[in-house]
Structures are given as structure tokens and as C-alpha cells.
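Q: What does the assembly look like in three dimensions?
Context provided by user:
Components: two
Sequences:
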Amino acid sequence: MSLAANGSAPAGRKQQMRGFVGFANLPNQWHRRSVRKGFNFTAMVVGESGLGKSTLVNTLFNHKLYPKKEVPAPHMERPKTVAIESISADIEENGVRLKLTVVDTPGFADFVNNDESWKPIVDNIESRFDAYLEQENRVNRAKLTDNRVHACLYFIQPSGHALRPIDIEFMRRLHQKVNLIPVIAKSDTMTDEEIHLFKQRILADIAHHNIQIFYAPSYDVEDDETLAENEEIVRKIPFAVVGSDQQVDTIDGRRVRGRAYPWGVIEVDNEEHCDFVKLRQMLIRSHMEELKEHTHNVLYEKYRSEKLVAMGVTQDHSVFKEVNPAAKMAEERALHDAKLAKMENEMKLVFQQKVAEKEAKLKQSEEELYARHREMREALDKQRLELEDKKRRLESGRPLTPEKGGYAQGSKKKGFSLRN
Amino acid sequence: MDAQQTTPLSQYVGFDSITRQIESKLLKRGFQFNVMVVGQTGLGKSTLVNTLFASHLIESKGRLEAHESPRSTTEIHPVSHLVVENGVKLRLNVIDTPGYGDQVNNENCWDPIIKYIKDQHSAYLRKELTAMRDRYITDTRIHCCLFFINPTGHGLRPIDVTVMKKLADVVNVVPVIAKSDSLTLDERDLFKERIRAEMQYHDIRIYPFDSDEYEEEERELNERIRSLIPFAVVGSERNVVVDGKQVRGRKNRYGVINVENENHCEFVYLRNFLTRTHLQDLIETTALRHYEAFRSRQLLALKESSSKQQAAQQAQQQQAQQA
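A: Here is the predicted structure of the complete assembly.
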């Protein structure tokens, strides 16, 4: 028994098997486990009002997820911002359970001013990523619920010309965060030729702006049939779809899902009439798991790394080196010692600085004191001199004050002064 | 001429030939009709106009190359053609408005359109008021505005309501559901009802208007037209083969649409309405209603501003006298 060649296996030796072991049964075990757990899938639909988003979702899953749209009467208030509404349903087919969630974005591109209409949508997708990130970082990770958006169906108006500015802007903002699947809505209004030219122009626009849409990837290991199918699917991208959740009668009497016009009946499930079958195949039958994987491995990882780097968590590359515990301890001790020495030095410096400050202050006050002392001494000396002067005068019987002496005599002796 | 006694004639005079005299004069002069198309890109405006007048009048101005940048404002593109049918000359002006409603932020995208319409009225007024005016003033006023509605099936979008209101004040508006081959008959009827309800709620007065002058059959005709509005149309410049005949239509993957088949779309009604029954009325209503309203507003404003100027001058003089 030879092993199937797996290109990504680590460099081990391919052994030849000598008997049947039984791990070929692994896929079956996986299958049973998955069926037991059930699957979940979250899709988002974005587009102008009236492009048939709800109808297409109902048609895709053959389940009336969205009831008939209630158009508000003229006098009722219209919402002023893009809303995010999500509907869930548990559907089952052949024993396989699918929890389907569809996120609708009513109001997108419906206003006069649609600047930033993508913001609520981008915020919603990122908040779902954040919720998953938070779950991953919890202590108890037993229950991980995956609410991330796995696919975003973007509805393009069937104008026949090219993408509109709002289409391009939206796709540019979201193609790195979600698997973008553009679809041409209400394509029953276009002829074959118009559809062909329109698709070409859309793809040219997408390439021109470097927008990454989801292309059904194919792997070399798969069989030819699958590869051929994949190629057919990729050729039809973007899908020109028509949706209908009602049954009509065709001219030759069959009862099919479709739309009845006076000039003919368009059948939704007929590949000649529209690309609905291919869309369903890619979205559900062949690439649903692909979409989930791509969301987890590529889009979510990108978001996660960007977010962690932005939070300041740096990648610690030393984690990957081989660690010797003794050497590590010595290293740590050395570090510790160095730290202590540094602290000591710092403290010394601070101490010296403080001492110098205090000295300077004391010197200053000393000088002030001296100055005062001198001043007072001088004042005292002056006073003493004055006092001695007065004493001498008193002793020699002279008048204390010369002018007073003159008047005390009664008359002013002219030319004859008793003053010395 | 009310209930006046008609005086009997004793002999044939021959003044009944005045109608033929007028006709021959008018035939020599030719007629002028200006129509404007307003709507989002990709709704088939150019195709419909070309289908209506059965000739290639305007080019589609959609963005077709990836490196072309989309238009950043609404541009006004008038194109003039002369068409002749059975000796009747019609000078046709088609005014296209590419870029309307195409940007992410469409605030005031209708301003260039309203301005253009008012400019035409104002140009006519100026020519009328000059002392030496031309014998026949060339009429560039917009006689009809075809407003294209997206076939969503839900109702009018906020931008449609705003613009239709503004347009209905200055021009005859004829709303049209574009690319109506995306609606089944039931969806179409429901859609029309909703649109009519919204137009009534927002008080948007669309052509045709009622007037006391109209006679019984004219009023009936108008009623019928009003019950059809908005017209659900499909346009096509190419021919397809239906029952061995070449007709204008579209060939899909699942059927062939005949543009001239009344069961398929209402193109025939629109064409008859515009060209066969109401062409003259559209021109007249523009002159009698919209132009008159514009004219009276302008002249009143002129009088007011001149009287204000006079009052200001008088006040100045008085002040000068007092000082």
C-alpha cells in the first residue's frame, strides 16, 4: 500500500506499508465528528435596496429566511444610517445540520450622501474578529463559537457600464477583511452580449484597483473532474444571477423556480439562463469549507497580527532560542547586580547634590549675618561717638546745642561768639 | 368665446382658410422642442431617447474603461438635431445630465440641472425685455424633463424624491421606470402604485396638469395618462426578428422583448403621449406656467430691489439735507 503523496508533509521518509493498518479511515472519523458537531456558516449580503438580496438568499438555501419585504409607507420615518441585521436559521439536509447566519445591511448606498456607509459594515466585521480573538485568549477555551463573516456577497447594479464609485470604494475597504464575492443582480434585464461585456469591465475595474475577490482555488491533487468544474466556476466570476423563491409554469408545462414575463419565463436553476447554479455550487457545494478556512487562516490572522502589533505587543524573538537554565540564572543575577549598582550610584549622586545645596544655603545665611553684624557695629560706633561728643560738651560747660546757647543769653553778641 | 350669438353669414367668405395660412407659416418656421433626461448612470436614458425619436441622437456617456475616472459632478450636455417628417421640421434639443446621482456623496448634484433650466428661462426673459428684440426668439427653455426611476420594485429613493420636487417647480416632469423588463407585471403594478402614493404624499406635481380650459375628451385623455404614469419602458436601438418581422427589441437568453408591443412595455404609450398628443401642450405649458412663474418672480424681485434702492437713495438725501 503506498501513501498518497502530500506535498506539505515534513521531510520524513516515505515508508512502504507491509499490511493494512486502518488509518485510511481517518476521513470517515472526521466526517462523523463534523456531522455530529454540525456546521455553521455566516454570510453577509451588501448592496443597494431593491437589488434582490433577500430573494437571492432565500433561493440559495431553498429556505424562506427572509419574509416578504415590508416597504415603508411614504409618511413613515426612514432610517438615517446603515443598519446591521442578522438572521439565523438551523437547516438540515440528509442528516447534516447547518446553522446559517445571514447578515443584512439595509441602508447601504440608499442615502443622498453615502460617505462612510461602509464604516458600520467594517466595524461589524472587525468586532466579530475581536470577539473571536477574545475567546481565543480566554482561560477556558472549551466553547469557541465562530461568528466571523465567511463570505460577503456584493450586489452590483446591472447598469451595463462598469463599477460605480461607491462599489469600488466599498470593495477597496473590505477585500482584506472578508471573502468578497461580487454578483451581478437582476441579470435577467441584460442580454448575453451585455452580460459578457459588463463582466469584462467589472474584472478590469477590479484589477485596476487591486481588489482581491474570492476565486475558487483549485489544487493539483484533486481529480480532473473537480478541476474542470472549478475552472468553469472561475470563468463565470462575477456571477450574473437571478433570484426567485416562487414557482412558475414554463411554456412547456414544467413547474420551476423562476420569473414569468409576458415574453418568456426565466428559470433560476437553468444554467443557460443565469449563473445562479454556479454561485450556489461555489458558495455551498464545493467551497464553503474553503471560505471558512481562508477567513480563519488568512484574513483573521492578518487582522490579529495587525491588532496585536498596534497594541504594542512586540514579537519577542528570543523566545525561539534554546534556553540553558543555569546560564539564564547567572544572566539574571548579573542583571540584578548591575541594577543595584546603578541604583547605588544614583543615590550617591543625589546625596552629594543635596549636601552641596545645603552648604550653599548655609554660606549665604552666614554672609548675611556678617553683613548685619557689621551694620549694627557701625551704627553702635556712630552712636558712641555722638554720645562722647555730647559728654565732652557737657563737661566743658558748653551748651549742648550752639543756637540754643545764643538765645539763652538773651541777646545775640555780634561779632563775638562764645562758641569755640 | 362664451355663449355668444353667432351672426349668420349670407355668403361664403373664406376666412376659414386662416388655419391653413397659420399652418403654412408654422411649417416654414419649423418647431422647437427641448427635452432633458435625468437619471442615474446605466438606466438606459440615451437608448430611450434614441428609441423615441427613432434615430441616433445621443451617445451613452457611461464609463467604459477602468482607467477612466468617474465624473465628479453633474455635467450638462445639450445636443441639437433637426428632424423632418412629412415636411414638418422639428428642431430637437436633447440635454443629457451625466454624472447625476453617481457619486458616493450626491448632495446638491441637482444644482447644476436646476441652474441650467433657470438659465434658459432667464435668457428668454432677457431677450424679451430688450428694446430691440428679435422677431422670433429662439426658445431654449426645457419643455419636458424625463426623470428615470430605478426599477427596484420598492419605491422612490430619497434622492429621487428630493430632485423630483425641485424639478417639478421649474419644468414639466414626466417620470419613467427605466429598464422595466426587470419587473414582472405584478411587481410593476405594485411599484407604480407605491410611486404614485409617494408622489402624492410629497406633493410632487407632475405633468399633465389640469386646467379649466380643457374639454371633456382632453380631460379624459389626461386622466388616462395620469393612470399610466410612471411609464414602464424598455428602449432599444437594435432590431430583432419577431414573427418574421423586424422590430426594435431585445433578445434575452429566455425570450424576446418587443419594444413596440403594448403587452411587453409601455413605450408606445410614452411615445404617443410625448409626440403625438401632448407635444404642443408641453411647449405651451412651459411658456404659460413655468416661464410665467419665473418671469413674475424675477420682475417682482427687480421691482423690490429697485424700490429698495430708491428708498435707500431717498434716505441718504434726507440725511444729507439734515446734516
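Follow-up: Chain A has a mean pLDDT of 85.
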